[in-house]
Amino acid sequence: MTIFIAIYITVVGLLFGSFFNVVGLRVPVGESVVRPPSRCGNCGTRLGAKDMIPVFSYIFSKGRCRHCGTKVSPIYPLFEAATGLLFLWMFLRFGLTGTAALGIVLAGLCIVVTIADLKYMRIPNKVLLFFAPILIVLRLAFMDAPWWHYGLGGLFGGGLILLIALLTKGGMGMGDVKLFALCGVVLGIGPAVLAFMLACAFGTIVGMLLISFKIVQRRQPVPFGPWLALGTMIAYLYGTQIIGGYFSLIG
Ligand SMILES: [Zn+2]
Q: Which parts of the chain register pLDDT below 70?
C-alpha cells in the first residue's frame, strides 16, 4: 500500500511542480496563471497535453520544442522533478501525517519562491499571501512543540533578515524578510536558526564557486531566497536530528 501512496504523492508533486513553474514565472510580472495557455517561447505554438507531461515531455522531446526545435529551458523539468521528490520525501519522512501535509505545502512555497527569485530577483507578495494562511492554519493544527516556539521562530526569521537588510542596504529585500518570517513560524525557533545557518553556508560556498568560475561578477547581486528555501527544507526534514546530534556532540 505504501508504494502506491508514494507513487501517487510523487505524481501529484510532478503535476504541482509544473503548475509552480507557471506561478513562479508569471505571478512576479503580474500575469494570470491560467491565461494565456502555455506556448513555446520561440514559435508561439500552443502547448498540448503531450508537451505538458512533467519531466517526461522534456526527456522524450530531448529538451526541444516539438514544433520548431528550439531548446526548452531545463528549469522546467528540474523544478518539476524537485517538487515530485520533495513531496515524496515529506511522505517517506513523516508518513500520512499533518506534519507531512504541512511539509508539502512548505515545499510548494519554497519551490515557487526559488523560481521567482532566480528569474526576477523578486519574491512576490501574492505568493506569500497565498501560502501564509494555509501554512499558519496547518501549523496551529499540528504543533509538536509549545506555540511560542513557532512564534519565536517567526520573530527570529523576520527580525534577523530585516536587520541584515537594513545593515547591508539592499543585500536582502523585504521579500526575503517576509519569506523567512513565514518559514520561521512553520519551523519553530531551533530549526529556524539552523535553516539560516544552512542558507548562509550554501549561499557563501556556491557564491564563491560562481565567482571563481567567473559565472557571476564579484559585485553582482545574487538572490538569497533560494538559499533560505533550501535551508528551510533541510531544517524541516531533519532539523530535530541535526540539532539533537549537535547538542549530544558538545554535551
Ligand atoms: Zn517552438
A: 170, 251
